Amino acid sequence: MFTGKICSISILNKKFYLNAVNGFLESLADNHKSKNNERFLNFKEAVIKILELRIDNAYPGCDGIINIDMSLTEDYIEISINDKGVPCWIDDFKSEKVDSIGMENLGKDGQRIFVRMYMLNMIVFKEPDPFPEMQVLDTNISIKRVETEKDVLEAIRCIYSEYGYSYSYQKFYYVESFMNAIKKKEIMSFLAVNEHGQTAGHFALLFSDKFKNMPEISTVVTRKEFRGLGLFAKFMDYSIELGKANNFRALMGQPVAFHSMSQKAFIKAGFTATSLLLSYINAEIESEYNKNKQRMDLFAAVKILDESACGVIYPPEEIKSFIENILTKANYNYQIGAKAAKAKETQINVHTSRHLKMTRIILSAADDFFERVLRETVKDSIKNKLDMIELMISLNTPSCEFAYRIAKKCDFKISGILPGSEIADYIIMQLLLASDYDYDSLIAVGDYEDLKNEIIDLNK
Fold first, then answer.
1. Are 241 and 376 found together in one domain?
2. Cβ atoms 116, 408 nearer than 8 A
3. Whole-angstrom Cα distance, residue 35 to residue 49?
4. What's the rounded Cα separation, in Å, for the pair 69 and 44?
């Protein structure tokens, strides 16, 4: 299957060109047998509406160029609209029916708006054969890299046994996409097996462009017959050894905020608790930890592997000691920037996910325009009945303090920090839209308990 950019079109801001774009979308639908699919009609409607609004408003009173890129991945069809005209935000157009929609302010390079229709959702899942009850023949466990289709099928069975089909990274449920993700180094997947070839569990390292060279330890599953053998700790130790061998800058994990055993395993492996992410995981997630079908709270934890890693940060004065304390615990080298200052322009990425029922905002730099974008994003998220907004503010930009104060003004609360990525170190803030900030129900131990109490004090 071809993946990548299908084509690019540059048009003048004239409505005459809407017909050409509409015709291309129709042919795209024919090729993917989705012309009469309601999801595609919503997708096409959103694209045409955005394009029409940009034609009307991007260049008032003059001619201007609007660029349209059409891309195909294994996961989704994406249409992006890019121009250097007057900025807009997501609330300017209908977004409540599309799978995923986002906005990226690129500074001097203009603004990019994208709409995605996910392809995997169009496929009916086939339930994998369940693991039969078995007698454990030995407990000498070793870690095996997932490389073959047979290994992938075993990994899928492991993941399904714990999460059903609710895990957000859907490539884990298809052999072809799973294999391709491994080949493209988007994931590293591992099975725990004993000397008789019995599968004891699974875990993976997920790589993300947002957290470059800092993969996340994910989809950790231990079969019930093998529990009590310390496999979680074995997975952590193996990941650290692998990370050092592959020159990863850091590792990240997300232990759930009511499962003390996973928190203790991360503490034992030398991870530092860095943030508390309330109401983070969609309520539809299936696992033995979420029988009540409520959104789940997570901690984020980081282990710095590269001792030479260093960041120049501009911490807001109000939370400076909190940030420095976490970075010191994590053995992360940092320098305090000389002068905080408002940026000349806002550089921001806003991405709304209907599947996760949340909006993620990544802010690289902020000027006065940031407050307007943030308030419009909140209004749009409420309109679309989303549960939560996550705001990630780069600590490495002089406008960090200004952005932090704007976020507090808009009722965002501090959740912690996330250091270690080659892209940026981040302050994490959240705005809960569908629930209260419930700290009392959390189960936390050690450093996680200390972090929770610090965050409660900061948000008073």
1. no
2. no
3. 18
4. 14
Residues with Cβ within 8 Å of 453's Cβ and at least 6 positions away in sequence, in order, are none
In degrees to the nearest 10, what's the CA dihedral of 442, 445, 446, 449?
A: 10
Together in a domain, 380 and 445 = yes
Tokens (6 digits) for 131 = 């693991």
Q: What angle do CA 64, 67, 69 make, to 5 degrees?
A: 170
The CATH number given to whatever domain includes residue 3 is 3.30.565.10
* Total domains in the fold of the chain: 3
d(CA 101, CA 79): 10
**C-alpha dihedral over 194, 198, 200, 201, to 10 degrees?**
110
**Domain membership of residue 353 as a residue range:** 272-460
pLDDT in tens, the chain (460 residues): 456 777 788 889 888 888 878 877 777 656 655 545 777 788 888 888 888 889 988 898 898 999 988 887 777 788 899 999 887 765 555 555 677 888 888 777 888 888 888 765 444 566 777 778 889 999 999 999 999 999 999 999 888 887 777 676 777 888 888 998 999 899 999 999 999 999 999 999 999 988 999 999 999 999 989 998 999 999 999 999 999 999 999 999 998 887 788 899 999 999 999 999 987 876 555 444 544 556 788 899 999 999 898 889 999 999 999 999 999 999 999 999 988 899 998 999 988 887 778 899 999 999 999 998 899 889 888 887 889 999 999 999 999 999 999 999 999 999 999 999 999 999 999 999 988 898 988 889 999 999 999 999 999 8
- Dist CA 351 CA 359 (whole Å): 6
117, 133: one domain: no
Is 239 in the same domain as 303?
A: no
Please indicate, yes or no, whether residues 300 and 198 belong to a single structural domain of this protein. Answer: no
d(CA 394, CA 423): 9
Distance CA 67, CA 5 (A): 13
Where among 123, 141, 174 does a domain terminate? 123
- Domain end point (choices 194, 214, 248): 248
Give the Å distances, CA to CA, from 242 to 34, 204, 218, 249, 451: 43, 12, 15, 12, 28
